[in-house]
Amino acid sequence: MKKLTILMMGLAVIIAITACGNKDSKTATESSTTPAATTAATGSPAATTKAAAGGQEVVLKATNFQFDKTEYRIKKGESVTITLDNSQGVHGASIKEFNINLNNGNKTVTFTPDKAGSFPITCSIMCGSGHASMKTTLIVE
User: Fold this and answer.
1) DSSP type of residue 106
2) CB 127, CB 91: distance < 8 Å
3) Alpha-carbon gap, residue 90 to 19, rounded angstroms
4) How far is residue 115 from each of residues 8, 11, 98, measured CA to CA in Å?
5) Which of 121, 58, 65, 104 is nearest to 88 (CA)?
6) pLDDT digits (tens, 9 = 90+) for 39-97
7) In terms of Cα–Cα distance, which of 93, 124, 86 is closest to 109?
8) Helix/strand/coil for 138
9) Quick one: DSSP state of residue 97?
């Protein structure tokens, strides 16, 4: 019985460790389930730039246990498209104050921030030992 328990625990650890090593090959842009957010297709935007349609664009590049920037700045009241780019591993991005949760099935969301402030962005998919420290900040000016 102890051998089976140890074997199962070892298997669970191996699965957890390898979860970050997977690369999602989907390039689909699917709709969000939240009423405050709608999706939009995007090409390869810069980290924070003005979109062709007059809105802002933010690309969250996620690698194992970190986002590419410590903060992303946008303007209050202007439409913004946020895209999750899993450069390494499988990650998600959650901004609770705006009811946004990006993942492999929903990589892009467009919304208009209605409040200014500093809002945490956290990885929403358990990705391994550094998951708890995978955070960045959205600053709405």
Assistant:
1) B
2) yes
3) 7
4) 47, 45, 9
5) 65
6) 333 333 333 444 445 689 999 998 888 899 999 999 999 999 999 998 888 899 999 99
7) 93
8) strand
9) G
Distances (CA, A) of 101 to 33, 34, 93, 98: 9, 9, 6, 9
For residue 62, what is the enclosing H or E element? Answer: strand 56-63
Beta bridge partners of 117: 140
- What is this structure's pTM? 0.61
Q: CB-based contacts of 129: which residues, under 8 Å, 6+ apart?
A: 17, 65
Consecutive H or E run containing 82: strand 80-86
Residue pair 138/109 in contact by the 8 Å Cβ criterion: no
Contacts of 109 (CB under 8 A, 6+ apart): 32, 37, 38, 39, 81, 82, 100, 102
CA 79 centroid distance within chain: 18
Q: Under a CB-based contact definition with an 8 Å cutoff, are residues 134 and 68 in contact?
A: no
